[in-house]
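Hi again,

Forgot to attach this to my earlier email, sorry! This is the prediction with V47 bound. I've pasted everything inline since the attachment limit keeps bouncing my files.
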Amino acid sequence: MVPLTLATWLSKQHPNGFFVMNIHPKLRSIRDKVEAGQRLNLQDGLLLYDPDVPLNEVGELANLVRERWNGNAAYYNLNTHLNPTNVCVYRCTFCAFRSDLRDPKGYAMTDEQILARGQEAVDHGCTEMHIVGGLHHQKGYDWYLNMVRLLHNAFPRLHLKAWTAVEINWFEFLAKKSVRAVIEDLMAAGVGSLPGGGAEIFHPEVRDRICEHKADASHWLEIHRTAHELGLRTNCTMLYGHIEQPYHRIDHLIRLRELQDETGGFQTFIPLAFHPDNTGLSHVKKPSSLLDLRTMAVSRLMLDNIPHIKAYWIMLGIGTAQTALAYGADDLDGTVRHELIYHDAGATTPEILSVDTIRQLIVEAGRDPVERDTVYRRVVRDESDPIQWQVGEAIADGRANPLRSESSGAKAVGPSSAPVLIP
Ligand code: V47
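Structure tokens for the complex follow:
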């Protein structure tokens, strides 16, 4: 008889080779659902936040789902940020970045400064520029639109991930146009996808207290729905660790999941940990790494229809972001240049990581580094000149999840900066 080692015995305990020893009794029914690829409900989500339920067991379940979607890959990109103004008509209590119009801290960039940022990005081999700013009292719709056109014309291969739903809502007001017409204008100017900011917490019990006048949940979702209908891919976020409770987080995740069921247009979810320094909520304690990891894992488990979960190293810190790659996350975001929103709020992370460093962080975490572009296609670098790059094949997305619906077989086409339409 062949001797049975512990490892072989463990691997025989479940068809997926997945085995959790001494699973907490409260987690058993959730584990059964996750293993069977079934959807978790609100009660399940709340239970995952129950402090009695061990974090490592929640993480292990999230890791199962993460590996189903993305195997051992961990993605990153080469990107830069552009925050063309910090002047903002809104006064969100969580924001340290904004400025009043007449405050000496307030700024608005010139076309020359904006173009110089584009040039710097291209010179460093970036594939993406993430553009987000304030709602300036004196800048018109054309200022925002022209900046995209200027950048796109000068650097047509640089993907412009530009303007959150909150800015698009402001453009509706400025231009007196519908959401659809605004997004069509932005696409014609060169926007390639929308970032996920401005979602904060959807539930009005919280939203009304942290960003009262901003686009409400249904409008934020309507803007992303419209973008998806027009073929744009978008990201989504949740700002946690301030005044919200687990119920508000799960409610938020379920609202995102419902829209994704309708459109399939979200590609990545980014849980954003609140940084309190220099904000109207500076009395709130910064969320612990334990809450960061639990939120990462719960997000992976609840958002069963979104292909990627990002551990944004700038805000999590490098150690937690690396650990998050075993708690549901499959993406670290990018090398990042010129990040201001988190650094103004007290983030102590570096302002940039080199490609070698980000790859090394991924390898140390036991994952395989894969450079992607904004819409999740492989990026192939020229070995003799790594600033030069080509778009490679599309990375398998949610429709390739073996426990969910059939594979789409979608193929990426076009230059990196062009929107890749949702199949
Ligand atoms: O909407 C603002 C958050 C968001 C603070 O789409 C804060 O790939 C913590 O959305 N502490 C903007 N968070 C950033 C964002 C984002 C980041 C990375 C990648 C992507 C993407 C999107 O930052 C805001 C708000 O939720 N935020 N202030 C703060 N003090």
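The radius of gyration is 21 Å. The chain has one domain: 73-405.

That should be everything now.

G.
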